[in-house]
Amino acid sequence: MVKTRLKKLHLGNIIKKVAKTKGVATKDIAVALSRSKLNASKILWHDDLDIEDLIHLSYLLEYNFLFFIVNDYLLHLTHAGKDRETEICLFKVDMNNRKIYCNEYESNTNYLKDIKIGEYLKAIAHQKNWCGQEVANRLNCTAANVSYLYQSKSLKVKKLIEISEVFQYDFISNVYLDKINISNSLHFLAGCVINVNKNNIQIIDPIHNTCLLYYRQIDAKKLKPEK
Question: CATH no. for residue 28?
Fold first, then answer.
């Protein structure tokens, strides 16, 4: 059961571990989440987070948390995203500063302002011909709770995983993951290994660290010419 497996998932601990590895302080997390330092610290003690907060932290820490969540919990569900084999990404390699720059004008979370997860839940329920009471029965909640879900701007990650399982539809990938592009710069080491396949680009520090980048389709008209 998904609920049983989710009990072992503690997002706060995972974030703290990544932040420590990256050398990111709590004050930086507070800024990314628009919280006070105290509240940001409290959030990291929780096992669950709002998915938009997790996305903001993914950009701050240059670590795609959603990718690993989908791989661990939702790979068996419907993902209607585009075939990544047809998608492209631009990279600039700065050998002097040992950085790789990736589509810097797209590496932000501006797209979140246009996403209301409740509208996606309602749309998929409609596709399945599920009325509000049917959704309530399947989610083991009241019709009033379903109405609240349909009006929600965002939801907690674990809740969204549970709903995805009930709907047999991967909301995390279809609504959020396909839009993520992390990050506009990555430090890399001499002797690093770069692997490229149709799904991702891996830049691997052979000693201990692996950075995973996604690439996605961009409009050629938006490409900024070199000056």
Answer: 1.10.260.40
- Altogether, the residues listed in the chain come to a count of 227
Which helix (H) or strand (E) segment is 33 a member of? Answer: helix 26-33
Note the pLDDT tens digit of each residue in 98-143: 555 554 434 478 889 999 999 999 999 999 999 999 999 999 999 9
Same domain for 85 and 19, yes or no, is: yes
Tens digit of each residue's pLDDT (9 = 90 or more) over 51-102: 999 999 998 888 889 988 998 999 888 775 544 433 444 555 555 555 555 5
Considering the domain boundaries, does residue 227 fall inside one?
A: no
Locate the DSSP E strands across 43-127.
91-94, 99-102
Nearest to 154 by CA among 116, 114, 108: 116
Boundary (domain end) residue, out of 173, 189, 213: 173
Q: Of 165, 164, 178, which Cα lies nearest the Cα of 217?
A: 178
Distance from C-alpha of 181 to C-alpha of 62, rounded to nearest angstrom: 10
Are the beta carbons of 214 and 179 closer than 8 angstroms?
no
